[in-house]
Amino acid sequence: MVMRRTRTLVVILTVVMLLMGAVGGAAGGEIPSGPIKIGFAVPMSGTATSLAPDAGINAEIAVEYINKYEGGILGRPVKAYIYDTKGDPQTAVDVFGKLIENDGVEAVLGCLSSGTGLAIAPRVESKWKIPTLLLEATTMQMFTTAVPNPKYVFRIGPDDVMQSITHVKAVLGKKPDLKTIALGAPDYEWGHDVVSSFTKILKQLRPDVEVVYTFFHPFGEASPNFAAYITELMQRKPDVYVGYSWGTDGVAWHNQARAMGLYSRIPLIFDVFSGTAKGQLATEGVLGETRAGNCMFPPHALGYPNSKLAPMILERVGALPTYGMGVHMLTGMLYLKAAYEKAYDLTGQYPTPEMLAKTIDGLSIIGPCGITSMINHQSTAPGMAVGKLHQREDGLWIMEDMLIVPDYLRIVPPWMTVDEFIGKLGEIGQ
Amino acid sequence: MGNNQQPVLLAAEKLRKFYGEVRAANDISLEIAQGQVLTLVGANGAGKSTFLNLLTGLVKPDRGEIRLLGKRITGLAPEQRAKMGIVKTFQLEHVFGDMTVFDHVRTACLSAAGKHYSMFKDISTETEINGQTEQLLELFDLARVSQSLVKNLGHGFKKVIDIATSFAMKPKILLVDEPTSGVGEEEKYHIMELMMNQIRANNLAAIIVEHDLNLVKDLSNETIVMHEGEFIARGAPGDVFGQDKVVEVLVGRGF
Amino acid sequence: MGANTRTGRMMPSYIDDRLIATIVLTAIAAVIPLFVSEYVRTLIQRCLLWIPPTFGVYIIYSLLRQVHFAQSIFIGLGSYIAAFLAGKYFVTSELLILLPLSLIVSIGVAYVLGIFIMRRTGFYFAIMGIAVTMAFWSLVYKMRQITGGSDGISDIKNPSLFGIQLGDQGLYYVSLVVSLGLILLMRRILHSPFSLQLRAISGDLQKAESIGIPVNGMRRLAFIVAGANAGVAGVLLAFSYNYVGPTTFAWEFGAHFVQAAIIGGVNYFVGPIVGAFVFVGLEFLVSTWFPNLWEVVIGVIVAVIVVTVGEEGVTGIVKDLFGRTLKRANLEERTYSDGK
Amino acid sequence: MFSMGLRYILNALPVVSYVILLSFSYSFLLYICGRVSLTFAGIYLVGAYATVSLSIALMGNSLSFAGFMGILLLASLLGAAMLVASYLCFERFLKTDVHRMVATSSLLLVFRGLVKVVWGTTPVTYSAPFLELGVSEIAGNIVPNYYLFMLGLALLLMLALAYFLNRTSWGMRFRASSLDGDRTMAQACGVNQNLVTLMTFAISGVLAGLAGGLYAPIAGAAYGSEANALLLAALSVIIGGVGSIGGAVLAAFIVGIVRAVAAIKMPVLELAVPFIIASVTLMLRPFGIWGKEFRY
Predict the structure, then answer these.
(1) What integer is the mean pLDDT of D47-70?
(2) Which end of chain D is more exposed for a tag (fewer CB within 10 A), N or C?
(3) Rounded to a whole number, what is the distance in Å from the CA of D296 to chain A's nearest CA?
């Protein structure tokens, strides 16, 4: 009997211990100690680098900012794993594999070009299942054909239609009496996409405006000569020129167009990415946009977090505005921070990747571009603004006379296709 | 060794090659029969090497014709002519330095057998070729260095290797460009002997360019003197070297 | 066999050493995925798939002494064949169809390109290679409707073999088998009459012509062999990324194989294998330790190797360090004096 | 028709000018020393960055054109010094052409990597000299005076080099050592080969550095621009021929103008067209339009 009782006691004790262990395990939602690992897959060599300059430094800045001014995530410092995609989609696949499978990061920010984004997004959804915030990768294919029902993939930066609607509205708003327009873009997928959606939307809203000249210049040639295009452009004499050249292309375009007098000969110029380089900034009076991609810090966002971010960028990169990688990355980090904290608050547990991904969607944060929300895996600011560039006394370029296009005019609702939405644009505008 | 009963093997007709002002070959004609050994002498720049190169096709003539056994070969590439039996050895070092002696000769054996594109066969299974190669190495007294890299061997060896390689092509006519230049006195005779033995044994035709007039007398009983792209004398070496103009060309310039 | 008459030693004979080394290395490659993380497996797979194109560069370099920058054409062809047939316009994902098809296309394209590229040597050959690669690149880049332009073709599903859908692990083993097969084939080719005569061409062009070697034809065939290797690897590379973009056609990509071959050492048959592993491994380490210095590190390494040991490469350095040990495994087997 | 032609020529000027300098920088080295060296493209990159950084540092917003010329001079001297240093420390140990090609092309990687470390990859630009010179109107075409200045400077340098090579005793020594001449003979006649080689590298460096400096105000100093410069220069040498000054100028004009024409008339071919021309040239005239037959 004694034996038996002892045995029962042992069994009961074991069960109790196991139960306690299980409860303890469940309550193991305690925040793990040590730094939180976040991966960055950014172009740091190859052609894309000259276009998305200093992406690596910008990643460091974003992490430094979070650690220094935001107290990390859930009190844990962020440890960044920054790798080079060389701007090449295939290398990006390798880099993501390394970040996720080898280093065990909890979320990844990365991929600038559409190609890189398209290469990794399906893998993230089907295999890796780690929250991934794409920086740009603006192609419409992303959430229509590549990953139609995203769970883990998010995008910071506007999609092509969003930005084109903003651009068309801005141009029409700034110059209502325009008759002719010319468009120029770099010769790669994004360039073709934005030009075609711009043209489509323009035709919808103002069928009478004629596109007199469209050109696609070689992309990322690093020391291009645009004289032929500029001459042709001046001969066609459009009322408005909308240019999408960016990175080194943008710098070269800006220098050459200014020297050849393009800026004084065409009534309105919308240089979507005004030259962003050390030593040479924008041109007074030319239109620019506030999308994070361009980082003309809008005046209303000069407080938090830009008052702290801007000096960091100036110190490390030496140029402001810079191409928006730094801004994107900080936006992404702020989303992640907010998602971790919200998920933890709601469940009392340290979030799994799945919980994290679910939480990110629908979040709103205050970031470098003002209030920004993640709607249907797409980060948007309440309004994308276009305004005239102006250099302040202290040397900082800001935007004046801004025209803000609100979200409901830009975001394609989930129940509509892109074409339907564009077709309805006229009505919605009323 | 002149054997004029044999049919004409190789015929050159009015070959001309000018390099700007320089007349390297000025309407040269020549016929050579099987088994006939000619020596070619002349001062530097007389056009001897150019003449040989014209025959092998390394240099394209401005005009003129070359026939092998009556067949016109003027437009053919060097490698095609080599296949047909016109094989040249070089004056300067033209050897495959990174190969072993064995491989060097074997390359030519393979080429003669037409096995250029044989990619999937292990070379060690080419027993026939390897046998031929070993035989040639024996004949030219190279067997003991067969595994040495060619570039590590002396000048004399390289000459012999070059000649042995040419023989691997089973030539009909051998064009020999200064086989003994830059070789010591003693080796010279050794090399010549090795080569002449084989030429005679196979009853080959040969044109030999040589500087050493004593050697020329031993080599053949017919010699041609070349000057400024033209043949200025032809005949038995003893007779030819007595002629005034020949002395002027050869000796006068020599000093 | 002069140099190899090492009889009376404890070691087994020459050929057995090599066989043992091959078997051991293959066995390691075969079982390693069971023990390592998925990422390391991917990395090894990448190395394996880099070997065939690097061998292509190696053949052109070690036999013809030319620098072959145009490998990316054939990688690209193979990749896009896979992307079109197994991805965009789904026809088949059967490797038994895709691999031979890519082989045939690569050979055809290499034949045509070889007609004019291989007529030139030295700097001109290198630049012609780059020029032709650029032409292909811009063709693929500009045919946006078909190739997807710079966005490429994404979400290519894994292929099947004998009708069985392969997982990532299955793909690894296919890569291993294909790469091993090509290595053995290359070994055979490098010991063939063909490659002996190619070495004659690079040794002395005039002499080669004068012993009747059809220089242009043989060079072209060498180019075809190099291209075919890359074409086959291209198919598997496309599947290993599940993505194909025009950067596969970029000449910078082709230049990587030249760097890998140089690092490995073009004097040794194992050079390309060592080169592929070292290059990919180096990329892994550098991107971890100095993500910003990739170009400097790889540039300095290649430059230093060329200046100090030339064609010997890492293999040569390792051989010098551990000469005796490696001699037993016969890793020092040189293409340059292979006995007979 | 004529005015259209003129327009394309004027549009091509900046490319033409820098390609003249750059391609001759390469072909001069190849011609005199018989050395393939791709380092010149790295020098081009350094020249561009040096010019722009010095301009920003020394001149700020107060431009003086003479000051800019001084900076250009400094940049070209820096280029010469770097190329000579690269020869002394590195390139002279390279034995064969294949080695030189592989090693110097990896040196380019090092150059661009170091540029990234020093300057980052945000382009650096200083276009004041470009803007300050203003524009001219030639037959209805607007052309910045800076383009004309570039072309003038490039042509002037080429003329000076032609004079130097053909009319001076030092030039004779250079030509005696070249692929054309007989190096052993030159040595026997007391031409100091080492000195000639060093001077050739220096001149080549001056040309490359100047090309970078001259073009920098137009496109900014940008990471990665050396690859493009290298390809354009190499293609021009193939088209024009090694060692020929006339060939360098002619090829630069061809490359520049066909690109300008293609940009407007056939944008699909803009990037490919120099390669196509080079390939055709190689088929029809293997040693270039103006070149002589060399070993290369």
Answers:
(1) 85
(2) N
(3) 29
Strand order in the sheet with B71-72: B22-33, B8-19, B63-68, B71-72
For the cut 60, the answer to whether the pLDDT of residue D23 exceeds it is yes
In a domain, A199, yes or no: yes
Confidence at residue A293, expressed as pLDDT on a 0 to 100 scale: 41
Note whether D234 contacts A: Cβ–Cβ < 8 A. Answer: no
Asked if the Cβ–Cβ distance from B103 to C211 is below 8 Å, we say no
pLDDT of residue C334: 43
- Tell me: do A250 and A208 sit in the same domain: yes
What's the domain range around A105? 36-158+305-380
What is the pLDDT at residue A7? 64
Contact C174/C268 with Cβ under 8 angstroms? no
Query: Are residues A347 and A205 part of one domain?
Result: no
From chain D, pick out residues whose CB is under 8 angstroms from the CB of C293.
113, 117
Spell out the residues 6+ positions from residue D268 whose beta carbon is closer than 8 angstroms to its own: C142
Cβ–Cβ < 8 Å for D273, D281: no
Question: Helices then strands (H, E): number in chain D?
Answer: 12, 2
Number of domains in chain A: 2
Picking from A155-159, B225-229, C329-333, which range would have the lowest pLDDT averaged per residue? C329-333
- On the question of pLDDT at D238 being above 60, the answer is yes
Residues A190 and A314 in one domain: no
CA distance B135 to A407: 90
Where along chain D do its domains lie?
18-224
Predicted complex ipTM: 0.86
Is D in contact with A (3 or more beta carbon pairs below 8 Å)?
Answer: yes
State how far the Cα of B75 lies from the Cα of C172, in Å rounded to an integer: 54
User: Does any CB of chain C come closer than 8 Å to the CB of residue D101?
Assistant: yes
Averaged over B102-128, what is the pLDDT?
A: 87
Domain co-membership, A199 together with A84: no
CA torsion B70→B74→B80→B83, rounded to 10°? Answer: 30
Instruction: Return the pLDDT at A130.
Output: 92
Q: Residue B72 pairs with which residues in a beta bridge? A: B67
More confident residue, A95 or B235: A95
| Residue of chain B with shortest Cα separation from C200 | B96
Q: If interface means Cβ-Cβ distance under 8 Å, which residues of chain C face chain A?
A: 37-40, 42-43, 46, 141, 144, 148-152, 154-155, 237, 241-243, 245, 247-248, 252-253, 284, 287-288, 291-292, 294-295
Instruction: Tell whether A284 and A233 lie within a shared domain.
Output: yes
Same domain as A355, residue A277: no
Q: Are residues A262 and A214 in the same domain?
A: yes
What is the pLDDT at residue A190?
86
Quickly tell me which residue has 């089973």 as its tokens: B170
CB pair distance less than 8 Å for A89 and C245: yes
Distance (Å) from the C-alpha of residue D222 to the closest C-alpha of chain A? 6
Q: What is the CATH number of the domain that holds A406?
A: 3.40.50.2300
> Could you give the domains of chain B?
8-95+171-254 (3.40.50.300)
Hey, is the C-beta of C23 within 8 angstroms of any chain B C-beta? no
Give A278's contacts in chain D (Cβ within 8 Å): 56, 122-125
Q: Which of residues 53-82 of C touch D (CB under 8 A)?
A: 61, 65-67
Percent of chain A at pLDDT exceeding 70: 83
Residue A23 lies in a domain: no
Q: Which residue type is seen at C320? A: D
pLDDT at A399: 72
CA triplet A261, A237, D220: central angle to 5 degrees? 35
Whether residues D228 and A45 touch (CB distance < 8 A) is answered with no
Low-confidence spans in chain C with pLDDT less than 70: 1-17, 323-340
Distances (CA, A) of A170 to A175, A239, A403, C217: 8, 14, 6, 63
Domain ranges for chain C, please list them. Answer: 12-249
More confident residue, D133 or D186: D133
